[in-house]
Amino acid sequence: MIDLMEELGKKTPRYSMKYRRLIEGFARKGAIDYHESGEKSYDLGKFFTNFYEFFLYSAFIGLYTNNPIPIPDDQETKTFGVPVRDWSSNNSAQTVQYLWMTMFVKSELDFNVLENMEQKDAEREMRNISRLMEAYANGGFDFINSKVTENPAFFDDDDCFVKLLKEVE
């Protein structure tokens, strides 16, 4: 029997390179992005400490707006280089688990069937779950990017991402 959390934890989700500048505009690229010792992400004008935190946020925006946009196979992508099991800064591990549970529901995965699957088939299903998560994050990036294009001043407010959540509820 496959351990779902272990299998999903191995995944390193992709994002479309067309959103790279958007991601870099709102998130730091991990701990190596510190310019001076002790400098905080918000001191750098960033809202998210790590790229993957912005990915998580965007996935939930994609869910709230019901806007999954699968990444086409021919589109250039990049991963965060950090498997999901290590996405734990700022207590985000629980948020990752909530996102996975949501993806299980959205995928309509039959757990009874999964229990009796061959390992390779179960791994394929987990890859599909990961791709679904990427699609919702991609949809969230698309929504946020549209908001930036329509009203860049919206993101001048320190609470803009909280307000954006309220907007899409």
Helix content: 40-55%
Uncertain spans: 31-39
Tally of DSSP helical segments: 7
The main β sheet shows up as: 2 strands, antiparallel
Overall pLDDT score: 86
Summarize the helix and strand pattern as letters.
HEHHEHHHH
Number of strands: 2
Could you characterize what this model shows?
- By secondary structure, the protein is mainly alpha-helical.
- The chain has helices at residues 4-9, 20-26, 51-64, 93-107, 111-115, 119-150, 160-168; strands at residues 14-16, 77-79.
- The model is unreliable at 31-39 (pLDDT under 50).
What distinguishing features does this structure have?
single chain, 169 residues, mainly alpha, two-stranded antiparallel sheet, 7 helices
